[in-house]
Amino acid sequence: MTRPTPETLAHRASAATPATVAAAVAGTHAAVTVSPTPTTGAGSLVRSLEALGVEVAFGIPGGAILPAYDPLFDSKVRHILVRHEQGAGHAATGYAQATGKVGVCIATSGPGATNLVTPIADAYMDSVPIVAITGQVARKSIGTDAFQEADIQGITLPITKHNFLVQNAEELPRIMAEAFHLALSGRPGPVLVDVPKDILQAQTTFAWPPTLDLPGYRPTLHPHGKQIREAARLIAQSRRPVLYVGGGVLKAGATDGLRKLAELTGMPVITTLMALGAFPDSHPQHLGMPGMHGTVPAVYALQKSDLLVVLGARFDDRVTGKLDTFAPDAKVVHADIDPAEIGKNRHADVPIVGDARHVIDELIAAVSGTATGTGAYQAWWHQLDDLRERYPLGYEEPTDGTLAPQYVIERIGKLAGPDAIYVAGVGQHQMWASQFISYEKPGTWLNSGGAGTMGYAVPAAMGAKVGRPGTTVWAIDGDGCFQMTNQELATCALEGIPVKVAVINNGNLGMVRQWQTLFYEGRYSNTDLGTHKHRIPDFVKLAEALGCIGLRCESKDDVDKTIQAAMEINDAPVVIDFTVGKDAMVWPMVPAGTSNDEIMFARDVRPNFEEDDL
Question: What is the number of alpha carbons within 13 Å of residue 119 lying toward its C-beta?
């Protein structure tokens, strides 16, 4: 295979940011002010994408959407032809998560549209701004069970922030502008635009900018001053506070303010799985990740706190464990841009609706006169530091001589460094990647949190690399996840998207096997994938068949040099089959449905939080 040069790969892609959407829609950007001109609905759709600043879309053509692909052929919008619509959706998500811009995916009607359901649900759960454009059968055929008809608007109603079924060609510019505005503003999320084929073929005129028509949609950005003052009062009174930080802080671009607030108050900080990188892992006030596979100090801090200051988080069950035993003595200050989240799972003593950046900035101003730094919580920090010393994250080397998966992931993080982007699939490897790579900067950790979507990593890494082509992107995947969407490596090879994929190949559905070990008496029903015993598939040969460079590593002595070899290849995708032991487990662990007080540091090792309450 002839490798493309780095110069031919440097298609820097960017889509609409909130500012450029506002500028485009308001007509303040001269380049997008267009007088009415004749075109088709398809032409109007593509020109709307151009006016909105979209430079890349991921998709696959088909009958109903085909009219849109004709003007796309001449457009400055770069189209990346994926191998499966699910890949298009996850690529759009990875692009959006890596850049903060809107990700765009395109599919045809029926099965094309339904193949987007999983990535749309994934984006909805993790509040990711994507716009999915689907073709639909002609209007006169809707409801007749026509060939490749599916009610994608109805199907996605529960998993989109909003969706549209376009009724006439003239409204396409307005709907597209509204879709982008909705996706990005307030709590971000996916928006679907379903366009019947006859509307794409219809003659119309394109004019820009349109006038948005979204009555009643006014997200609250600035918090109420009274609530901020009450939050500051509780912070001043507390003796065991915790800053509980969620992904909303990253989405608001509030990480600098978060660090200032933390250092000003001296409060311990915990960051959820979706918030890794929002606060430096190396910072002395960072206790790590909470929840099912969180650190002992982070879980303890939540359980024993007298005040939770919750910023852009939603009290997910993986964090709280058994909800009625979660942080029983804590008052709650809950700040979120989505008012529906406040009080949904846990009563908020001080509810604050607002954008995390504004909330944090106003909290800083409110506590500045009373904050005394870490000294105010000396006894609290004594307890937490003692737990950090006694229960650090770690792992045991396999006794059978096999390669430890934790070591592999730890070395990738060390060698690739804090500026790389790490994209994880779902399962044990996801948890190890969250634990053993140090995240120092925002936007360097991408994963499927709420939906827990296997198959996310490869296409999301592809999207991230398209959005940030100058950044090293590592997909850390499992052998189960990898087999769901690895066909997108063919897309990467042909489109010149040199991602690096580490397959943590333990021969099993690892997290399921762990549960079978712990809770099903070792009855390993249908978790052996055959990638160890039979090497089916052979991941090195598969990588080569997909146009990538394939490598294999089976011993600890070869880990660093294999990673370095991959790091030196920047003109083609690289896949490394790290053949690791099958018995490694993720620790700590809070068994599902139990209290966080039941955290297991290792098998048969349970910290006693009452005894540890020094």
Answer: 39
Residue 2 has pLDDT above 60, yes or no: no
Distance in angstroms (rounded) separating the CA atoms of residues 308 and 311: 9
pTM over 0.85: yes
Give the model's pLDDT for residue 21.
53
Would you call 511 a catalytic residue per the annotation? Answer: yes
- The secondary structure of 568-599 as a DSSP string is T--SS-EEEEEE--S-----SB--TTSBGGG-
SS3 272: coil
Whether the per-residue pLDDT at 94 is higher than 80: the answer is: yes
Active-site hit among 148, 322, 544, 556: 148
- Copy the structure tokens of residue 529: 């994938």
* 369 has pLDDT over 90: no
Q: Where are the beta strands (DSSP E) in 348-392?
A: 350-353
In this structure, which amino acid lies at residue 552?
R
Q: Tell me the pLDDT tens digit for each residue of 430-483.
A: 999 999 999 999 999 999 999 999 999 999 999 999 999 999 999 999 999 999
58 as an active site residue: the answer is no
Half-sphere exposure of 519 (CA within 13 A, CB side): 10
Q: Which two tokens stand for residue 599?
A: 């955290």
- Find the mean pLDDT for residues 418-427: 98
- Determine the Cα–Cα distance for residues 142 and 150; give it in Å rounded to an integer: 9
Question: Is 85 annotated in the active site?
Answer: yes
Q: Are 268 and 356 in contact (CB under 8 A)?
A: no
The catalytic position among 50, 85, 149, 410 is 85
Catalytic residue among 147, 167, 226, 541: 147
- Taking the C-alpha atoms of residue 438 and residue 585, their distance in angstroms, rounded to an integer, is 20
Distance (Å, rounded) from C-alpha 371 to C-alpha 261?
Answer: 10
Helix ranges (H only) for 377-454 are 378-390, 405-416, 428-436
Q: What is the mean pLDDT of residues 523-546?
A: 96
Could you confirm whether 397 is annotated as catalytic? no
**Catalytic member of 125, 292, 484, 511:** 511
Q: What are phi and psi of 463, to 5 degrees?
A: -65, -40
Catalytic residue check, 161: no
pLDDT, mean of residues 114-129? 98
For residue 170, what is the DSSP state? G
Q: How confident is the prediction for the chain on average, in pLDDT?
A: 93
Structural domains of the chain ordered from first start: 13-208 (3.40.50.970), 225-390 (3.40.50.1220), 405-579 (3.40.50.970)
User: 234: Cβ–Cβ under 8 A, 6 or more apart, which residues?
Assistant: 307, 331, 333, 349, 350
Residue 29 has pLDDT above 50, yes or no: no
